[in-house]
Amino acid sequence: MSVNVRFLASNQEVAFTGPLRPASEAELDEAERCLREAAASVTGRLYVNLRRVPLMNHRAFRRLGRVLLEILDARPDLTAQLVISSAVPWAARRGAALAARSPRLTVEPYDRDFYPGQGVIENDHLLPVLRAQTRVIWSHEQKMLALHGLEEGMAVADICCGIGDFALLLRGAFHPGRLVAVDHARPFLEYARAVAREFGIADIEYVYGDATSLYLEDAQFDFVISRLALQIFDRPQQILGELYRICKPGGRVYITNELMRHIYAWPRSERVAWAYTLIPEMAAKLGMDVNFGPKAHAALKDFGFQDVRMDRIEVTNLNTDIEDFAAVAAGWRDYVTQDVASATAQPPETVAALQDALDSFLRAVESPKGFASWPIYVASGTRPLDPVTP
């Protein structure tokens, strides 16, 4: 059993990390001791944090549940909360069964509100749009990845991998020694795994997980990627912390994000500019910052990354496949005027104006005399080497 148990006094929290699958009761003695000592030292509420326990057998759950109920029976002044992750299949079901046995025990999914726009983003009808988007960006990004330090044979993590098509392209172009792709959207991962099976690809590890609390060991990867992701979460610093943690000292973290208010099209540039000023305001109501792109440089530096590099990909209808770019423009038009508009309760007249403006962007993409551009900011930084201990 390789679980780590520690008491965080400032949080009144007993935190478990790693698989909890003891072969004997004796292996749980240390965990019980820590739990009882923690309970004896706190008042009010005790937190038992299981969100980073990916596996737990019946013996462990039964023992910890019994100990927790005994503690609550002996301490009428105390309440307890189990903190779990919905990314772990066993957690919600077993937690609810245990909570039913005591009115002073509650279960809180850590990632229930993982990010406010989660339900808007994680829709399987976006799959065709996302596929076209990857094709559009990849034609520019492949060279950018090499400039930012990605080399063949590296151990690579693709965090917030979406539908997994980028991981497939990366695998073919860079032949990583290991490739792990993580996402929190089940429809996207199901699609990614199905495509991998269809193509006979078995060396990409697709993992369901919370990007702010990854089930990956420290310092495992030479190159850690998170594309167009920090901008749709309301906790980008927590994600950066996890990207830093799983990156090897000397390895690089690579992120891309948009500056949506600088999306441009001609003709009708003023109308298009109005739409791409309003859309970030709508997205902000869902916890997203779709203008995060230029902020990435400071975010990496503030987190302690070294050798920070910043570049910009300019996707235009003059340097990109028109059919793919048009598919992206049409798909996001429908997504904004339907899903995002509904989620942010936009009035009908605003939706109609958005439809008109985004139609104008699409026409600019398709027109032989039109011009349309979509800026994507690329930033990467090196995790510092650990200090040498004499």
How would you sum up this structure, described in words?
- Strands 6, 7, 8, 9, 10, 11, 12 and 13 form an eight-stranded mixed beta sheet that branches.
- With 390 residues, this protein is α/β, with parallel strands linked by helices.
- The chain is globular.
- It is built from twelve helices and 13 strands.
- The chain is 42% helix and 23% strand.
- The protein has two domains: 4-109, Transcription Regulator spoIIAA (2-Layer Sandwich); 118-382, Vaccinia Virus protein VP39 (Rossmann fold, 3-Layer(aba) Sandwich), CATH 3.40.50.150.
- The mean pLDDT is 90.
**Structural class given helices, strands, pairing?**
alpha/beta
* Overall tally of domains: 2
| Spans of at least 5 consecutive residues with low confidence | none
What is the class of the largest domain in the CATH system? Alpha Beta
What fold name goes in the CATH topology slot of the largest domain?
A: Rossmann fold
Using the CA coordinates, give the radius of gyration. Answer: 24 Å
CATH architecture descriptor name of the largest domain:
3-Layer(aba) Sandwich
Largest sheet: number of strands, sense, barrel closure: 8 strands, mixed
Q: Give the DSSP E fraction (strand runs of 2 or more residues).
A: 15-25%
Instruction: Say how many strands there are.
Output: 13
Give the proportion of residues in helices.
40-55%
